[in-house]
Amino acid sequence: MTQLLDVRKMNILRAIVDDYILTAAPVGSRTLSKRDDIELSPATIRNEMSDLTELGFLEQPHTSAGRVPSEKAYRLYVSNIMDRARLTDEESEYIRRHLEQRVSEVGDVIRETARMLSGITNYTSVVQSPKMKNARLKHISLIPVTEGTALAVVVTNSGSTSSTMLTVPAGITAQDLDKITHLMNDRMTGYKITDVHRTLLPLLREEIGEQADSVAEMLGGISDDLSKRSVEVVGAANMLDYPEYADVSKAKSFLSEIEKGEIFKEVLPNEDGVEMTIRIGAENDNPELKDCSVITVSYSVGGEQVGSMGVIGPTRMDYSKVVAVLKCMSESLGSVLSKMLKGSESHKELKE
Amino acid sequence: MTQLLDVRKMNILRAIVDDYILTAAPVGSRTLSKRDDIELSPATIRNEMSDLTELGFLEQPHTSAGRVPSEKAYRLYVSNIMDRARLTDEESEYIRRHLEQRVSEVGDVIRETARMLSGITNYTSVVQSPKMKNARLKHISLIPVTEGTALAVVVTNSGSTSSTMLTVPAGITAQDLDKITHLMNDRMTGYKITDVHRTLLPLLREEIGEQADSVAEMLGGISDDLSKRSVEVVGAANMLDYPEYADVSKAKSFLSEIEKGEIFKEVLPNEDGVEMTIRIGAENDNPELKDCSVITVSYSVGGEQVGSMGVIGPTRMDYSKVVAVLKCMSESLGSVLSKMLKGSESHKELKE
DNA sequence: ATTAGCACTCGTTCCTCTTGAGTGCTAACA
DNA sequence: TGTTAGCACTCAAGAGGAACGAGTGCTAAT
């Protein structure tokens, strides 16, 4: 990338963004010239600021106010300017240790992650539970509930359970369900949940004949259901701490959006391989977030991205800190989950 | 109860409360005298208001402002004055129909109840899931997970499932767990979950001898876990619509309290037999709710109170409407749950 | 190229004044 | 004796205006 701005302009822009992130007040030339890292007179700075305004990096609320960074400025700041901080060892140690105290259930770990993320950053956090597509079958029970419906209770190798209501094809009896349950527990444990119904098909044909296909379809519903993932959102009320939301009607519309529960879409996993995404203001698809920035990071177990989490804050958020915290969280969560899920011993692959 | 106030004072008080609930602005004597239901001159009203203030039913924000009802006034209003409205048939029909569309899962019904409750009242709703203490065992699986831990998956006659991580006593093998599972499915279905571990004890003695007691204790953990109940809280952001929360810092402290997730305590079931409770302002245990009123109602299945729900709003809430909506909701939820849970056929009672 | 100097802009703050909704009290009235 | 008209008084809220000051842009000197 070619140098968009000369070094001096960069420095001034950094100083303005840093200051604005801290104070939320328009930054003036005199304030800047007092800083140690800028050795220029106010007048010179004013000239530079005037240029930066023309280039679209700064905005002026009104003639006699200081300058405020534009979204373009944040973009540049985030990609080229800010120092990509790492947390101190104590901080990351603290995070990891807290997370490791919650090793009994995946849900607990996710919740604790969300809580810490919002607690440390003081913004709103969104954490998605890991996808279980690669989970392997450990135990299954098909339990008839009413005429035509059955409950499938699946335990995966990671110890997580899920239960799904299934519609039982006509003609399948409780005895059939029992037979299928035993068949699956005997022959299919260790297979990926998503593969089970296909792999099982030939065996089913032997056991229950012509209804095998409809039963396989029913079992497919289990892996569909398993792909539904929960999302923890914590710290929405934190936003009220920032002058951006001093106006109650703004606060209300933000909080209502959060309560709708579709915010997780903003945190949807990035394309494979992309670790971190920063979306600033209007870059967000959701118009309700046009004054917010959303930073998301994916987390991995065993080298594979299985989920993501994010932080939502005002565009004037502390990008550097949030990036650092998210990195650490992602690593910690990944490693804690790995430990939890490593109870998976027998892996049988589906030969396609 | 003896008549605390004469009829005219009652009328004036009702008018003031009604007006204040509507407008949130202090009510003056002239405003009142313009109302059709009060045929008195402002001066007369002033005299009465002065008396009511002395008696503690009214308060004055400052000398030259109108009067505002005190908590004592709301108390009186709620117990003796307000007309206990019922919903129209269309309204209650609407509620019932909406709820009946969610018959597949208890959790869905609870969530929809909370959503409607907050949607209709425009306050914050809290709905507790029904207690399952009387649920009866339909199916159980004990699945070894790691050395020393097992997962208990329980399906009740109502079709709801729960899974609990149990600590397996030393010396109990996977085979033992299997044996116990079969024993329970063969002999204990239809019993109340809470009774199972006790009733099973003699049978366990036969099967696994001296370890029976520790196993029974482990199984007791299942019913402990089953008594954990989820709570849905919806519409916290609604509070921002009211001038009481125009101050962001108030809004923040309310929302933070909600987010802490302990609000359900305010909705804890009333003593048996009490159907509805109204707690006004300082009557709430939680100091964070001292400017709020909480109305809770219990709901029943088969004549037994199994849960409760409530609405949280400013003390200046529309008591009459909320009471009516809660009554209707309680009945609808009760009847919908009854239908869902009536799948319970075989009941075996524990002979004590 | 930088900076000191200066006139100018404009939001914020702080007064003061006015307005009006409300009161309490007193005296007249039915 | 209860009700009401009248009046002086209070006080929050709003309007208007001066003073302030943080900021700018421009020009001329360094």
Helical amount of chain A: 40-55%
Number of domains of chain A: 3
**Looking across the biggest beta sheet of chain A, what order are the strands in?**
7-3-10-9-8
CATH homologous superfamily descriptor of the largest domain in chain A: GAF domain
Shape of chain A: elongated
End-to-end span of chain A in angstroms? 44 Å
Q: Uncertain runs of chain A with pLDDT below 50, 5 residues or more?
A: 344-352
**Chain pair with largest interface:** A-B, 32 and 32 residues
Task: Figure out the total of helices of chain A.
Answer: 11
Question: Quick summary of this structure?
Answer:
Two copies of one chain form a homodimer. Chain A is an alpha+beta fold and 352 residues long. In chain A, 44% of the residues lie in helices and 18% in strands.
Structure, described:
The structure is a homodimer of 352-residue chains. Chain A has 352 residues and is of the alpha+beta class. In chain A, 44% of the residues lie in helices and 18% in strands. Chain A folds into three domains: 2-81, Orthogonal Bundle (Arc Repressor Mutant, subunit A), CATH 1.10.10.10; 89-129 and 230-345, GAF domain (Beta-Lactamase, 2-Layer Sandwich); 137-226, Enolase-like, domain 1 (2-Layer Sandwich). Chain A is built from eleven helices and ten strands. In chain A, the strands form three sheets. A five-stranded antiparallel beta sheet of chain A has the order 7-3-10-9-8. A three-stranded antiparallel beta sheet of chain A has the order 4-5-6. In chain A, strands 1-2 form a two-stranded antiparallel ribbon. In chain A, β1 (58-59) and β2 (68-69) form a beta hairpin. The longest helix of chain A is centred in the C-terminal third of the chain and has 23 residues, at 319-341. Mean pLDDT of chain A is 88; it is low at 344-352. Chain A binds chain B through residues 104-105, 138-139, 141, 143, 145-146, 151, 153, 155, 159, 161, 163, 165, 234-237, 240-241, 245-246, 248-249, 251-252, 255-256, 258-259, 343, and chain B through 104-105, 138-139, 141, 143, 145-146, 151, 153, 155, 159, 161, 163, 165, 234-237, 240-241, 245-246, 248-249, 251-252, 255-256, 258-259, 343.
